[in-house]
């Protein structure tokens, strides 16, 4: 058979399959025609809800819609415009939750026993409570594949807590454990509890066009592989906007690898001011991009590019505290302003939060280039005795610091403080780069200056 004939037969088979799929689609109203439901059946969540006043708890109805969709072989559970008050929603494989423009999934108050209890975890002493449990969430899934959460609607954490949740309470908006083939696209997440999106041990994931405006963590990728995060705006004034971790929550050391992050805004504006457009900078807290502090496993093959950071505590914060190795990381085309502490923070520490006294970790083979920063404090590259940060290349970087240092500041000798992750005692003796316990550090075309002269 000639290659031309094979091509024509393949094209004919594709067109036939596509046409059959299109003809098999169920009838859809004009309100739901804005998204592609070509794979599987479509179930309108409203068809399962008896009360549509937005104030009645509809958790059971939503879960019944998901179960019906799963029983039909998978497809889409569609949420038209309206408000849906809910507790824990249990995802299943081959299911898309699609929130149309004008729809809001509202997290139920924590005092009405609406959320699933946190599951048992014998390893929860090695990381924060929020990282150790997934079921006590607004939307959760475990051991699933081919799942998606999409649409121009809003997921509002509402009554969830940002701290440890008691019985019947929830503290995460979306939590996924050991899942694969995941897409989270275009949705808006607000006031999301401890985490807006927490995937743990998940592979093959796309997070695109998502907006987060929340009080605590934004997106945490914990022990995840093959992930693309793009075109997201994440505002988290009291915690980290986008964080890569390798906790021991799954009872073993797992790697976070093959991650690309691009075209994102990471900020620490006052909560809510990203969504309302005021971008209130008086809060100036966390935001930014962080690796760690949970770092039992390794981090490798990570690319970060074309990102803006505004009003964050730290900009690029990369640290290993629990034995993991961070390597093969490329960061480029980053603009920052009003970074309260360090625009570039590389830190090896020895907290050792993990079983069997984890060894000290490593940071090596990092490339950071094309970075512009205005309004910040000193950058850090610090290891601990016998464990240096290695082979970091800084190229084409311009940083305009706040300045205003004193003669006394210049005479300070910060302690190693091996168990502490965050910045060494401030102010530092240098307003440019403070580098200690490091080797193979290369600075090329690096310019530093200050807005206020030293005193």
Task: Describe the protein.
The protein has 455 residues and is mainly beta. It is 9% helix and 43% strand. The termini are far apart. Helix 2 (59-71) links the parallel strand 1 and strand 2. Residues 1-38 have low confidence and may be disordered. It has helices at residues 3-23, 59-71, 129-132, 407-410, and strands at 41-44, 75-79, 82-86, 89-90, 95-99, 103-107, 137-142, 145-150, 154-156, 172-177, 180-185, 188-190, 195-200, 203-208, 211-213, 217-222, 225-230, 233-235, 242-246, 256-262, 265-267, 289-295, 299-310, 316-320, 325-337, 344-348, 362-374, 379-382, 389-403, 433-436, 438-452. The chain contains four helices and 31 strands. The strands form two sheets. It has a 20-stranded parallel sheet that branches. Strands 4-7-10-13-16-19-22-24-26-28-30 form an eleven-stranded parallel sheet.
In a nutshell, what does this entry contain?
This protein is mainly β. 9% of the residues lie in helices and 43% in strands.
Shape: globular
Overall SS class: mainly beta
Kindly report how far apart the N and C termini lie. Answer: 82 Å
The level of helicity is under 10%
Structural Rg: 24 Å
Low-confidence stretches: 1-38
Q: Find the count of extended strands (DSSP E, 2+ residues).
A: 31
Approximately how much beta-strand content do the residues carry?
A: 35-45%
Q: Mean pLDDT score, rounded?
A: 89
The biggest beta sheet reads: 20 strands, parallel
> In DSSP terms, counting alpha (H) and pi (I) runs of 4 or more, how many helices?
4
């Amino acid at each position: 058979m000639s290659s031309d004939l094979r091509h024509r037969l393949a094209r004919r088979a594709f067109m036939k399959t596509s046409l059959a799929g299109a003809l098999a689609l169920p009838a859809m109203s004009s309100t739901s025609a804005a998204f592609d439901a070509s794979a599987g059946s479509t179930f309108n969540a409203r068809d399962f809800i008896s009360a549509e006043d937005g104030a009645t708890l509809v958790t059971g109805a939503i879960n019944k819609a998901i179960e019906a969709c799963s029983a039909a072989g998978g497809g889409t559970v569609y949420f038209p415009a309206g408000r849906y008050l809910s507790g824990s929603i249990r995802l299943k494989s081959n299911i898309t939750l699609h929130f149309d423009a004008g729809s809001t999934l509202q997290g139920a108050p924590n005092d009405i026993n609406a959320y699933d209890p946190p599951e048992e975890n014998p390893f929860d002493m090695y990381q924060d409570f929020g990282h150790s449990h997934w079921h006590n969430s607004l939307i959760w899934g475990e051991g699933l594949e081919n799942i998606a959460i999409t649409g121009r609607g809003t997921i509002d954490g509402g009554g969830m807590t940002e701290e440890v949740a008691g019985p019947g309470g929830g503290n995460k908006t979306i939590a996924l454990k050991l899942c694969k083939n995941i897409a989270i696209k275009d949705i808006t997440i607000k006031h999301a509890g401890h985490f807006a999106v927490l995937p743990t041990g998940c592979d093959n994931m796309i997070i695109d066009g998502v907006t987060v405006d929340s009080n605590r963590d934004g997106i945490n990728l914990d022990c995840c592989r093959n992930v693309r995060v793009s075109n997201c705006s994440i505002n988290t004034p009291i915690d980290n906007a986008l964080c890569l971790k390798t906790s021991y929550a799954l009872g073993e050391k797992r790697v976070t690898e093959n991650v690309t992050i691009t075209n994102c805004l990471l900020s620490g504006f006052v909560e809510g001011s990203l969504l309302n457009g005021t971008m209130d900078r008086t809060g100036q807290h966390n935001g930014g991009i962080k690796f760690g502090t949970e770092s039992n496993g390794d981090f490798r093959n990570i690319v970060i590019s074309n990102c803006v950071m505004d009003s964050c505590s730290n900009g690029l914060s990369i640290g290993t505290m629990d034995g993991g190795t961070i390597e093969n990381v490329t960061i480029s085309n980053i603009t920052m302003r009003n970074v309260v502490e360090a625009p570039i923070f590389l830190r090896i520490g020895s907290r050792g939060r993990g079983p069997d006294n984890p060894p000290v970790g490593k940071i090596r083979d990092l490339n950071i280039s094309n970075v512009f920063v205005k309004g910040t404090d000193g950058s850090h590259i610090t290891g601990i005795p016998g464990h240096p940060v290695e082979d970091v290349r800084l190229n084409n970087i311009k940083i305009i610091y706040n300045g205003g240092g004193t003669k006394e500041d210049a005479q300070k000798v910060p302690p190693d403080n091996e168990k502490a992750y965050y910045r060494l005692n401030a102010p530092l003796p240098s307003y440019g780069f403070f580098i200690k316990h490091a080797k193979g550090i290369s600075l090329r075309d690096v310019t530093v200056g200050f807005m206020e002269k030293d005193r």
